[in-house]
Design a protein that fits this description.
It is a single chain. The chain is mainly α and 409 residues long. Among the domains are: 120 residues; 96 residues, Leucine-rich Repeat Variant. The chain contains 27 helices and no strands. The longest helix is centred in the C-terminal third of the chain and has 14 residues. It comes from Actinoallomurus iriomotensis.
Length: 409
């Protein structure tokens, strides 16, 4: 994927790139917005490709009554089969699928064509399966059966719906892929008779049971997890299972977590996780320092944890860096954490951000906003749209519906 060029955070282009709600709200009244939307879809601006943008840009295309030409041209650019990077077209494929959900059914034809001819054909095929309309997916079972390997087919057919059922009736291989497999579970039964010390020995080894042993110690909330963390984390060994096991200890890990954070150990991020989830007011200063460090270093993926912790502790000192993160972060995912924290700390300060978030690209932000935004004027109208729009995520529709029914201001 080519390097992402983000425009200034205060510009309309920059806000559209970041999926900001304020950009979507003012888009209709700003000349030239359509070209900026096309630019965002064609030059995927996401800091992390897991971030949501598809529905955001699809809504803008609908609201601005834009054509699909530039999006389709991007998919079928001559470089498509020469560029192995699927990120070049993932967003455009997602946008077309979202447009279909929004009622722009003309988006289905290029999506079907790309599933047959495109370099990133699997992404288009998966979107058509998820749309779950057998008419839109008609004939594409031949593509799935011919081009998917066993792993791809299993993922594709993991979506149980009308499309995969119809395909399975015609293709034995697809039918086999739809059957739930008997998967081996974590070898907990084999470890249940071992003592904590035995498991710690296994955790220090190199066999297949290392991860299971660490997770079993965490499940038992054994303090040996903390010793293993101090021993193994500096070398980068088994980071994932150890972090999970430490979190499983809950508040029992607080004393050690405070040491790791105060001494700035190489694995202090694990300590910050614990402080954020279980710390007291005494832990607000290191959480605030961690947040400010993450923002200064643009380490957006780590900033969400201290933001959550500061929100849980209702630390008013966190408001300035949280507001800075909202305005300037390249990560839309971080805004979800920021909005939750601001709402917990001071709902009055959060009010304008809650209103903006009803148009945000992240469903997590829209869900929080739907549950907390002052119920008046523009917010009420937006909640009605979120409740009734089939393309909206279920969690957001549910939050919007509940809020409108309750009438709580």
């Amino acid at each position: 994927m080519t390097d992402i060029v983000l425009h200034p955070a205060e510009s309309l282009h920059g806000r559209l790139q970041r999926g900001r709600g304020c950009a979507a709200r003012r888009a209709a009244g700003t000349p030239g917005t359509g070209e900026l939307v096309y630019d965002c879809v064609v030059h995927d601006p996401r800091w992390d490709t897991l971030e949501d943008r598809g529905l955001y840009y699809a809504r803008l295309i609908c609201d601005l009554e834009l054509g699909l030409g530039p999006v389709v041209a991007h998919l079928f650019d001559p470089v498509d089969h020469d560029d192995p990077d699927e990120d070049r077209t993932n967003l455009a494929v997602d946008v077309l699928a979202r447009l279909v959900r929004l009622g722009r059914l003309e988006a289905a034809a290029p999506l079907r064509r790309y599933a047959r001819e495109g370099g990133n054909w699997y992404a288009a095929l998966a979107e058509l399966v998820e749309l779950d309309d057998p008419t839109l997916a008609e004939g594409l079972d031949e593509v799935a059966a011919a081009r998917c390997d066993d792993h791809e087919l299993a993922w594709l057919c993991g979506v149980d719906g009308a499309v995969t059922r119809k395909w399975a009736a015609r293709h034995p291989r697809i039918a086999a892929a739809r059957r739930p497999e008997l998967r081996s579970h974590e070898p907990r039964a084999a470890l249940s008779g071992r003592t904590d010390d035995d498991l710690a020995v296994l955790a220090r080894g190199h066999g297949e049971e290392v991860t299971a042993a660490i997770l079993e110690l965490g499940r038992r909330r054994s303090p040996l997890v903390l010793d293993l963390a101090e021993e193994l984390l500096p070398g980068g060994a088994h980071d994932g299972p150890l972090c999970r096991a430490v979190r499983d200890l809950g508040a029992r890990a607080l004393p050690r977590a405070r040491e790791w954070t105060a001494e700035r150990r190489s694995y202090q991020d694990v300590g910050i996780d614990v402080l954020a989830a279980h710390g007291t007011e005494l832990d607000a200063p290191p959480l605030l320092e961690a947040l400010e460090t993450c923002l200064a270093e643009e380490d957006w993926d780590l900033a969400g944890v201290p933001a959550d912790g500061l929100g849980r502790l209702r630390s008013r000192r966190a408001i300035p860096p949280l507001l800075h993160a909202w305005e300037h972060s390249a990560s839309s995912g971080l805004r979800v954490h920021v909005l939750g924290a601001l709402t917990a700390i001071d709902p009055h300060v959060a009010e304008p951000y809650l209103l903006e978030a009803l148009w945000d690209c992240e469903d997590g932000a829209r869900r929080i906003a739907a549950g907390a935004v002052p119920l008046e004027g523009e917010a009420r109208d937006r909640l009605r749209r979120l409740r009734h729009e089939d393309a909206e995520e279920p969690c957001v529709r549910s939050a919007a519906s509940g809020r409108l029914i309750s009438g709580r201001r």
